Amino acid sequence: MSAFDPLGAVASYPGPVWLINGSRDPFRMDEREFLRACRHGRLYVLPRTGHLGALADPRALARLLGDFANAASAFTADAVR
């Protein structure tokens, strides 16, 4: 685990990456650094939500995941052309 480079892994991924954090998540400290590392990244912050956003507001997270699936499909289709 000590050899794992999460920023390097994100930077090397060519597809879209959505970072979804709760506004009250104590682990948000490096979110901007991760966003800068993404080639095609977006950051979404769920208001009034902690680290377990799926438990706090599952509908909001489900909507974002549906939107991401659509965006990823479009991204893949554009890459094939």
Protein model, in words:
The chain has 81 residues and is an alpha+beta fold. The protein contains four helices and two strands, in the order H-E-H-E-H-H. Strands 1-2 form a two-stranded parallel ribbon. The N and C termini lie far apart (38 Å).
Please summarize what this structure is.
It is built from four helices and two strands, in the order αβαβαα. It is an alpha+beta fold.
How do the strands and helices of this protein lay out in sequence?
Elements lengths: L5 H7 L3 E7 L8 H7 L2 E7 L6 H4 L1 H23 L1
Parallel strand pairs: 1-2
Which characteristics define this entry?
81 residues, alpha+beta, two-stranded parallel ribbon, 51% helix
In DSSP terms (H or I, runs of 4 or more residues), the helix count works out at 4
Query: How are the strands of the largest sheet arranged?
Result: 1-2
Radius of gyration: 14 Å
N-to-C span: 38 Å
Which regions are unreliable across 5 or more consecutive residues at pLDDT < 50? none
Question: What percentage of amino acids are in beta strands?
Answer: 15-25%
SSE order? HEHEHH
Please tally the β strands and state the result.
2
Structural class: alpha+beta
User: What share of residues is helical?
Assistant: 40-55%
